[in-house]
Amino acid sequence: MIELVVFDMAGTTVDEDNVVYKTVRAAINAAGYQFTQAQVQATGAGKEKSQAIRDVLALDGNAHDEEEIAAIFADFKVRLRSAYDELDVKEQPGASELFRQLRQRGVRVVLNTGYDRDTASNLIRKIGWSVGEDFDGLVTASDVSRGRPHGDMIIKAMKDLSIQSAENVAKVGDSQIDIHEGQDAGCAMCIGITTGAQSRELLAQAKPTHIIDRLMDLPPLLDASAG
Prior knowledge:
alpha/beta, Rossmann fold, 2 domains, two-stranded antiparallel sheet, 10 helices, 8 strands, globular
């Protein structure tokens, strides 16, 4: 029986018009590159953002030193802060209602993200959510030593909420790396959702247990797994 669902944020539970990956691309290309948006999203989706920059740069087959990556990441953070100040951030359709339904069933809800904690907390505040009222926990890339695809954020969420076994955990996210994260943690259900960065075809390559098209498709899956 599923006791905990760990949801990704951007593209899964948070609708921010893909501004993160648009900003990743803008910061990288401002440093003299010409990567496409499709390249950035296919390579960087769901990752801690300095790692996403590192992996996108690697697509050109050249060596890139950490000083260059750090400079692009610093520029990215400035650009993202400005973009979020102007952006009307919204929840993905049905997110609050789904959280409410799950928690009424006794299923705990945690958000996790490749953002650092400050960025994630600002997003949550803009939507009007708060930990303990709308969901049960938040784990960010800055809270663990290893980001996705390692399952460390999910394992921390389990420890924080005293969930004993990953066989009772589901992970939901909009990118392959979300699915790999759930697999690495041993989650019983690793679910891709088509509302964000990657298509159904890309998600399927990660071999999720399920792919859904909207958040409210999740409760029937949980019902079926409990049966």
